[in-house]
Every structure is written in C-alpha cells, then in structure tokens.
Write a structure and sequence with these properties.
It holds the Pfam family CBS. InterPro entries: AMPK_gamma/SDS23_families (IPR050511), CBS_dom (IPR000644), CBS_dom_sf (IPR046342). It comes from Phoenix dactylifera (Date palm). The chain is α/β, with parallel strands linked by helices. Among the domains are: about 160 residues, CBS-domain (Roll), CATH 3.10.580; about 80 residues, CBS domain Like, CATH 3.90.1280. The chain is about 35% helix and about 15% strand. It contains 14 helices and 13 strands. The strands form 4 sheets. Strands 1-2-3-6 form a 4-stranded mixed β-sheet. A 3-stranded mixed β-sheet has the order 4-5-7. Strand 1, helix 1 and strand 2 form a beta-alpha-beta unit. It is flat and about 65 Å long.
Length: about 375
C-alpha cells in the first residue's frame, strides 16, 4: 500500500479553512450566543490568558449553541435563563479539557491523527506555520499571535476517503465484518421528557454523534442531533423544558426555532410549571410589542413520527436520518456520512429495520490507523 501521502503536513488539511472565531474566557454566555448568531458560525473557540505569560493565549475549549441550550436547561438555570446568560462562558465549557488540542501546522498527518484518536474532538492548528516541527500533547497549547483554524474527525475521514485507493482491500468490506457497528447507542424513547435527553445530548456533542429517538420495541423513528440543534436559537430551551423527546425532535426541524403551531402548547406548559423566566425569554424573542401569543388551544399539538426512507435512498435533510445496514460497505457508509456532513450513520436490521447500532467516524479512523500500522511494520 502506498503511504507517501502520510508525509503530508497537517497544514494540507487546513487549506481553505476559515479562521477560527473566538471569545475570551471572561465573556458571558449571552456574548457567546450573540456571537454565534451574528457570525453564522457553528462553534467558537474560547481563549484564556496564561497567568505565567500574559502575552500568551491558551485554548480553553469550544462552544456552540448546544452548550448554551444545555446550560439554560440545567436545574440551576431553568427558572431564570436570563440570569444564566449573564454568567461567564467558563461555566459552559465541558469539563474534559482534552476535547480540544493544539497541533503545529508542520506536524504530520499521522501525528495529528493520533491526537484525534487519543480523544481530541477538535484540533486547533495555526494557519501560519513556522519554526521546527512541534506537537503539543496538552489541551491548552500556547498561541501567541496569528490565526488558527479547526480540524475535526470529518476532515481526517475526508482526507482518507480522497486516498481510498490506498485502502482498497478494506474499503469494500462490510461495516459489520470490520467490527465498526457499536451497539451502545445513545437513545431515548419517543414519549420520554425531552429534559431527560440532556445528559445524552451532552455526551453526543462530545462524541460527535447523536441521540436516537426510538419506539418501545426499539425501532428508530428519528434523532435529536446536536448538529441540527447547533443551528437553533435559545427559544428551543423552552421546548426542552416542556415537550417530549418526540415532539422536540419534530419541532427542531423548523429552521431552528419553534413553529407557530407549537407556541401555544409550549407557553401553556411553561405557565403550568411556573417557569416564568423561561416564558419571558420565549415571549421576548418571539413576539414583538403589542402582539399577543398564540392561543393555548394548541396544548395537545399533533405528533408525527419522523419517517425513515427505504434502504439505499437515505438523504440528509432536516427530516431524514442517515442509516445503513450491517452489510453496507465501509466506502458506502463514508460516502453517505461525508455527503450529509455527519460523523455517524445509524445501522438498521435489514429485515425489521430495528436499530442495531451506530458507525462513527472515530471508529472508522481507527480502522485506517490500524491499516497504516500494519503497512509501516
């Protein structure tokens, strides 16, 4: 197998990448929300100052709208989301600092891949490279001036897919034969309270996967996807506080905000639960002055399970879930995921379409890394 492409530097993966937008650690959750909405970015970097070297910046982590939604819906903030938005972003960062790591732009692709496989969710890479090759194996690699960009699991999978001819023997193998089908999926039942999904969503965000919404007999009817939630606004916090997982799944399909038909039901339930702060947040966002909210007659809005398309015709839209079968080839699964910009594919049984498991980019990258190890021996 030819492995010359491994001599490429990680900067090759950064070509065309936009500069990382960032906030200081002293910014508030509201500042982060405004920056995400104003800039149209899906995530922001958070920087801290090295107390030993004030001129030196440290990458403290990353934030997206999902982090803010989970924070607003926490037990300590549910009653007063407006106050929660005034708290520093340090309260929102995930505790595992290793999720964000820095590598130098002249590090090899293989070195950077090993950092990803060591548990990093994102790599921060200087856009301007210089000096001798150096790889920082800690979560808060120093950064003086200059600009940085993100690298993700998707970037590495796309890189290997573009060199798929080098992996011809395994590319045609089924995901089941490669032991890529994980059965330990994150799942919640359709009628469970959406708030029960929060711990699962936090984990899915860290793992770059999703939360399956299933029926009592284990059939997949849809998902609550962090990637879709990342395009939503703060009003979805009200849906988390009042709706079932199935209703939430349906409503976040509407361009990241609650549809008009759901407003009355959500507001009525907020009043019933005594969540005045959440109600005020929703009213301030959704209704201009002198307008009145929708009638609460929509309290019991109809629910529609999200339909799955037939095998072989899955398309990623807001209402479609990307799935495959255990005998689907690795190459086919990669094509599906890369085309629809997701880091995972659900695996369904070919006969009864029951949920079997999930294939993740993290595990796909391990397969490629194992093949390279054998080649380099």
């Amino acid at each position: 197998m030819a492995v010359s492409f491994l001599s490429h530097e990680v900067s090759d993966l950064c070509i065309g990448k936009p500069a990382l937008k960032s906030l200081p650690l002293s910014a508030t959750a509201g500042d982060a929300l405004l920056a995400l909405k104003k800039g149209g970015d899906t995530c922001l970097g958070v920087w801290a100052t090295d107390r030993f070297s004030p001129e030196r910046n440290l990458i403290a982590g990353k934030l997206c709208v999902v982090d803010i939604l989970c924070f607003l819906c926490g037990d300590e903030n549910l009653d007063s989301p407006a106050d929660a938005l005034k708290k520093p972003v340090s309260n929102l960062l995930q505790k595992d600092a290793g999720l964000v790591r820095r590598v130098e732009s002249d590090s090899s692709v293989l070195e950077a891949l090993d950092v990803i496989l060591d548990g990093a969710q994102n790599l921060v890479v200087p856009i301007r490279s210089g000096g001798r090759r150096k790889l920082h194996h800690h979560s808060a690699g120093g950064g003086g001036g200059g600009e940085f960009c993100w690298l993700t699991q998707e970037d590495f999978v796309r890189y290997f897919f573009n060199s798929i001819a080098h992996f011809a023997p395994i590319a045609a193998h089924s995901v089941s034969s490669l032991r890529l089908v994980r059965s330990d999926v994150l799942a919640i039942q359709y009628d469970d309270a959406a708030l029960n999904a929060l711990p699962l969503i936090r984990r899915a965000l860290a793992d770059q996967t999703s939360v399956a919404v299933i029926t009592d007999d284990g059939k997949l009817v849809g998902e609550i996807s962090p990637s879709i939630l990342a395009a939503s606004d703060e009003t979805v916090a009200a849906a988390f506080a009042t709706l079932s997982a199935g209703d939430l799944m349906d409503h976040i399909d509407h361009c990241g905000s609650l549809p008009e038909t759901a407003m009355g039901a959500v507001m009525a339930r907020l009043k019933k639960k005594g969540l005045k702060g959440m109600l005020e947040l929703l009213e301030a966002k959704l209704y201009p002055p002198f307008s009145s909210p929708s009638s609460s007659s929509d309290e019991e809005s109809s629910r529609r399970p999200r339909r799955l398309r037939s095998a072989g015709s899955y398309a990623r839209g807001s209402e479609d879930v990307i799935v495959c079968h255990p005998e689907s080839s690795l190459a086919a699964v990669m094509v599906q995921a890369l085309a629809r910009r997701v880091n995972y594919v659900w695996v369904l049984d070919e006969e009864d379409y029951g949920l079997v498991g999930i294939v993740t980019f993290a595990d796909v990258l391990k397969v490629f890394r194992d093949q390279l190890k054998q080649t380099l021996l």
